Amino acid sequence: MIPFSPPRIDDRTIAAVNEVLRSGWITTGPRTKEFEKRLAAYCAVQRVIALNSWTNAAELALRWYGIGPGDEVIVPAYTYCASANIVKHVGAKPVLVDVLDDFTIDPDKVRQAMSPRTKCIIPVDVGGLPARVADIVQVAMDACAWFSPAVNLRVGGSNPQMRLGRALVLADAAHSFGARVGGKPLGVQADITGFSFHAVKNLTTAEGGALAFNLPAPFNADEVYAWFNTMSLHGQSKDALAKNRPGAWRYDVEGAGWKCNMTDIQAAIGLVELERYDSETLPRRKAICERYQAAFSGDARFIPPLLRDAGREGSYHLYMLRVAGASEEQRDAIIQAISARDVSVNVHFIPLPLLTHYRNTGHRIEDVPNAYTQYSREISLPVYYDLADAQVDTVIAAVKAAVKAVMG
Ligand SMILES: Cc1ncc(COP(=O)(O)O)c(C=O)c1O
Are both 229 and 121 inside the same structural domain? Predict the structure, then answer.
């Protein structure tokens, strides 16, 4: 049986976690702070905050920007539900738009969907390929005359909506840590870039996420970081480590915050992962994707994914193969036939309007036809560090045999 995406856990990971467990400090502490510093250096930004998931981190970003009832947030229909669920959590309305053939949000569709209520745009780097974030930022800037900031909003002594004066661009980079745009690391394109370190991601902390801050002047990255740090811990003026120092027990609560801090156990896994990310993880994932690419390119039965182009290089998180001309039913039958050969595959993603909650709240798949077309013929193949070349070849053979059996 070839699994879809097991994490890479080896003696180094286990030793790092053991060390934390024996250290006497297991929640947010020195390792989390070290992880944040190293992530910031990797992403070439001043500040990164590490939290317990992409979902809670990105939701906190919406709260920081004062997004709530009456506001709209533009999200691609082709994404995991987290990208839009967070909009619902803060009481705002997700506006779902269609995607391009490379699965990423269509900037023209974003432009058409902009309204005076648009407070945020969430482009998603599906499969690890960066969305066209520069174009999205441009759309937000072009619409700034429409932007009506919430006047009574005060966050950490300032009004972030007044300061930015346009829709916030919050990148869903859950899949794309380590991708590059124009040779630059991911993190310096959007106002805020959110990463996921969930168990199946390229870089994991079991569960976890982070935000890289890239807000333009006059935002101060240290101040923004301080707000997130405090509000991710109930608004407490001191974290548990600071309170733990002798005599330092007293604290205040500056706002009714949330609870989504990262633990040092998670950060210890992340530090090991990060140290070998460029030297081991990315090269191996790239080699696997290239092997698939060589097998499926030039075969008219398949539409291989875009792994990179002139400006972008993805993170090789998913290998999103499409079967040319397959209907949804045929794709499902192909997956059954692949599974019968003991190979696990997946589909990324079921477009949101096909999910009960989104369908029942007025979203229609007919409004995002390309999302449906791409979804109906998509199959994601296994990509992970420990997948050997011989196993990649087994996957390729299983896919080709299954497509032949179903499509003729
Ligand atoms: C595109 C996308 N966005 C967001 C998330 C949510 O990440 P997390 O599980 O860290 O909250 C995922 C998780 O799979 C995802 O695929």
Answer: yes
Cα atoms in the 13 Å half-sphere on the side-chain side of 217:
0
Domain boundary among 246, 274, 302: 274
Distances (CA, A) of 362 to 94, 123, 353, 359, 367: 11, 21, 8, 6, 11
| Per-residue pLDDT reduced to its tens digit, 102-145 | 999 999 999 999 999 999 999 999 999 999 999 999 999 999 99
Q: Is the CB of 53 under 6 A from ligand 1?
A: yes
Q: Which atom of ligand 1 is nearest to the CA of 55?
A: 11
Residues 36 and 132 in one domain: yes
Give just the sign of the alpha carbon dihedral 234, 238, 242, 244.
Answer: negative
299 and 265 in a single domain? The answer is no
Do 61 and 49 lie in one domain? The reply is yes
**Domain end marker among 251, 274, 297:** 274
Q: Does the beta carbon of 173 lie inside 6 Å of ligand 1?
A: no
Taking the centre of ligand 1 as the mean of its atom positions, its distance from the CA of residue 143, in whole angstroms, is 28
H or E element at residue 381: strand 378-381
Whole-angstrom Cα distance, residue 67 to residue 84?
13
- DSSP letter (8 states) at residue 200: T
CATH number of domain containing 345: 3.90.1150.10
Find out whether 97 and 368 touch, Cβ atoms under 8 Å.
Answer: yes
Q: 2-51, pLDDT tens digit by residue? A: 999 999 999 999 999 999 999 999 999 999 999 999 999 999 999 999 99
pLDDT tens digits along 165-206: 999 999 999 999 999 999 999 999 999 999 999 999 999 999
Judged against a pLDDT cut of 90, whether residue 156 lies above it is answered with no
Chain-centroid distance of CA 49 in Å reads: 15
Which SS3 state, helix, strand or coil, does residue 24 take? Answer: coil
Question: Which pair of tokens denotes residue 222?
Answer: 């240290």
Is the CB of 176 inside a 6 Å radius of any atom of ligand 1?
A: no
Residue, of 76 and 246, whose pLDDT is higher: 76
Beta strand pairing call for 312-313 and 319-323 = unpaired
Whose CA is closest to atom 1 on ligand 1? 80
Structure confidence by residue, pLDDT tens digits, 286-317:
999 999 999 999 899 999 999 999 999 999 99
Domain with 268, as residue range(s), is: 11-274
Quick one: 59 and 200 in the same domain? yes
